[in-house]
Write the structure tokens for this entry.
Amino acid sequence: MSSTISVTLPDGSRREYPQGTTVLEVAESIGKRLARDTVAGVVGDCLVDLRTPLVADAPLRIVTARDPEAGEVIRHSAEHVMADAVQRLWPGTLIDAGRQDHSEKYQYDFRFPRPFKPEDFEKIEEEMARIIKEDLEFERDEVDREQVRQLMIDRGEELKVERLEAIPEGEAITLYRHGSFVDLCRGPHVQSTRQIGAVRLLEASGAYFKGDESNEMLQRIYGTAFASKKEMAEYFARLEELRKRDHRRLGRELDLFSFHPEAPASPFFHPRGTIVYNGLLDLMREKYLEYGYHEIITPQVFDVELWKRSGHYENYRDDMFFADAFDDVQDRNNSIKPMNCPAHCLLFGGRSHSYRDLPIRIADFGRLHRYERSGVVTGLTRVRTFSQDDGHIFCTPDQIGSEIEKLFDFIFEIYELFGFDDIKVFLSTRPEKAMGDPKVWEHAEKVLADCLEERDGVDFTINAGDGAFYGPKIDFDVHDALGRAWQLATIQLDFQMPDRFDLKYIDSDGAEQQPVMIHRAILGSVERFFGVMLEHFGGDLPPWLAPEQLRVLPITDAVMEYAEQVTAAARARGVRAELDRRSEKLGYKIREGEAMKVPYLLVIGGREAENGTVSLRLRHRRDEGVQSLDSVLDRVVEKIENRSLEL
């Protein structure tokens, strides 16, 4: 074995080091400033401790506080500082385990005689600040099992002794120390406590030891940490923005939808929310005419044999709702549909087709039901009943490229309407649990890859093993106004289901051939898209989608007759207009209109009524001044008809 290794740095340069050189030592060889700022390393794709010895040739990236990965290491280190602070303040407190995911938070569980209080948080944060100021170095020791057992027994850490038993034999066991604090830990950690720039404790709760309710209740503290106070301030500002944009909150405040325990994870859309929902469907129906789709309606309940034939029963039955009375039958005979594709295969197979008929594009807004576990359902973004803008294309093999090209046009056109301009594309390949011949999969994956490579301006990433069980797919991740990624559109190429349903068409030589089936959705689940869109706009829906597009605000009852005429004129132009008849002050009415995020507020006083004008206020802006009614309505109608994002 060579006594030297080659390290490849991000700029492509290579450096030779003795085997066993640590990440920090590499940083020191590059420069003192880099070494001082180092908090971890990335070897290949793996985040590692800066004390990690390098034993083989590898690419290496030094992680400093400016890098995205640094936050995880800083929070993990702050986690240890928090536990140290608790033990310093309350000697004899036993610690259990920290958190595995440090992307945003850290946590520790403690054997503590009572729940932690807000005043405890203040003391703990002050003690953490003192520990950080001490600039204590984190030390990593790889030790054998018996050494750790004896150490924890000597320290009275009986919870740690029990945790030690869960570490598999043969796995490396590491301890991390700073000052007098020591804990079982895999790391990674920063160089010293000085690299923890800002900490804050968030909340406390009870937590069963090992997550088992038959075990004792421990006390858990959550916190977060950053490299600087500025970063922490930005984080909490972002959290506040997320809170304000939370679609569940907006749905309640804007009277769009609600949930009720009698129908778990199944939304009730109120009249205002139904306007928005139908606006999305109307958009898709309009585009279906342009792109050559035929809308169909298919049943809700099917014989289970259909799902066995399609392969869904074998691969998807745990997520299906069944429609049988289990007290009366031994077997499941009927199910509520979780997807539309098998029904569309039945429809295609119900009559003969010539190659001249293809491609056949069908769309279905049928309601679907899937059993999502209670622990994962979240507002509209994860529900048990929903509708998709679902479509399937049956085509010949040589039509695949042109059909996918049209789908790209369709998808990007729709997303542009919502201001989604940061879109990432992924090619998802054969999963471990897949139907059909691997050679067919290989061919299907190549077809999709060729389509992507031929599309100008579209870069894509391979998402290995994430295809559907019946075929590879292209997924589109849309980034919202806060930069969060949402997987929405999908294009799936399927050679399996046409074979299972024995679908045929007659080619130009009179021979039977099997069509290719393309599954596609653009909005995806309409419910999920509703939630994503609502958060993207922060509730400020564009005029064409706003449930109430215009509100008329008379200052006094004396102008009510003219206000009614203005409202009627707006409605005659197809605008969703409401009249605020309440005997409230104008300021109150304006605040109410703003709170309900109405795009256009038309204020009417005596002068406006006398002159046949209105005073226009745009959502979240100052008064636009007195204008003629016709010019205001022309503006409103133009923005609605063009589906403008602007007011």
